[in-house]
Amino acid sequence: MTTLVGRARQNGEVFDSSAASPAAYRQQDGPRHDGSRRELYRPGVLADLGPRTSAPAPRPVIPAVPGAEGHLARVVASSSDRVGWLRARSRGITATDVAKLSTQQSLRAAVYDKLNGSGFSGNSFTQHGRVREPEIAAWVAATHGIQPSDLLFHAERDRRHLATPDGLALRTGGRIELAEIKTTNKPFNSIPRHYLRQIWWQQYVLGAERTLFVWEQHDRFVPVHEEPQCQWVDRDDREIARLVALAGELIELLAQATAPRVQPAQAAHAARTA
């Protein structure tokens, strides 16, 4: 079933009743309490996260396609190299980060998660999503011509802004269309707002016009319908501008949280010698 809604991985994201709360809804990136996350945000790295729109990108894990233009010239990493992909993601703001941003409180929670990890290590629902995603992606490719993608891209206007769409198609005239895949044990009456934020961010990073949001409902891990369900989600530049502003606030909060702390004695000495 395909319908249209106004405005619209191999990463294992799912939406299930057991993971419906903000605390439980997390991307499954594996254990993240190894101390390396905070190290990635040491001040030297955060120099790349300053206000300059020309800030350098995370060092590419794989080179862009030789001679490529457009989105293929903005490849940062591939999730097939999971360590490199996670490292590159940790040095920027991803669609998963932005999906959680809606209030000042959510900004503070996002800072904590970015520096310390969420503590969520996966469950049977995330495992089901990972198993089913390749099958759903094959259906998307066969019915809509959107091929699976495991590439991490940076935005053209700011290399700190990152996204890994589940599927990507380059249409006639250079138009880009994306796909985002989910599994759920509950029916969707409408697309959850945090998924819309994720979709809009991916559209911004890739310069896409629309995204096919695809979901497969299951009952005790058995698909309910013969085929996945889907809706087209159109680009919404107003929502994208809001998300870009929130991402800027998140970067600023991360910079503040990791800035070197000046001891009172050092501050006094600096004042005397100034």
Whole-angstrom Rg? 19 Å
Could you tell me how far the N terminus lies from the C terminus, measured between alpha carbons in angstroms?
69 Å
- Using DSSP, what is the number of strands? 10
Shape annotation: globular
The H/E string reads: EHHEHHHHEEEEEHEEEHH
Topology:
Blueprint: E1 2-5, H1 36-40, H2 43-46, E2 75-78, H3 82-90, H4 95-99, H5 104-116, H6 124-144, E3 147-148, E4 151-154, E5 162-163, E6 167-170, E7 176-184, H7 193-206, E8 210-219, E9 222-223, E10 229-234, H8 237-258, H9 264-273
Parallel strand pairs: 1-10, 7-8
Antiparallel strand pairs: 2-4, 3-6, 4-5, 6-7, 8-9, 8-10
Helix pairs in contact: 5-8, 7-8
Summarize the structure.
This protein has 274 residues and is of the alpha+beta class. It has nine helices and ten strands. The model is unreliable at 1-63 (pLDDT under 50).
